[in-house]
Amino acid sequence: MTSAVAVDGRGAKYRVQGYATFTMDNGDATYARIQGAGTASEKGPPNEDGTWSFTGGTGKLKGLTGKGTYKISAEGGYIEGEYTLPAAGASK
Predict the structure, then answer these.
(1) Whose CA, among 16, 58, 80, 83, lies 20 to 30 Å from 70?
(2) pTM, entire model
(3) pLDDT of 10-62, one tens digit each?
């Protein structure tokens, strides 16, 4: 994964936005946008939640669409959402 993220904060509160590239073993890649907000903690991981969405892809993932949410906390975290793979042989 390669990412570029900007964080803007004041005190313990912050906002984050950025982009990530996920490259598969075969070289195909997906691109995602990430937006969230959180509160920093001196005692452990921050509490943060936000949204993500696919903005594109290459190879067999060209035309990929999807979006979802994520959460990070001291108790753990999750990423969830829905996506649609492009139809085989489809071109855009």
Answers:
(1) 58
(2) 0.82
(3) 889 999 999 999 999 999 999 999 999 999 988 878 899 999 999 999 999 99
Domain contains 15: yes
Query: What is the tally of structural domains in the chain?
Result: 1
User: What tokens appear for 88 in the block?
Assistant: 């085989």
Long-range contacts of 85-91 (CB under 8 A, 24+ apart): 85/61, 86/57, 86/60, 86/61, 86/62, 90/63, 91/62
Three-class SS string for 31-73?
A: EEEEEEEEECCCCCCCEEEEEEEEEEECHHHCCCEEEEEEEEE
| Domain that includes residue 26, residue range | 2-79
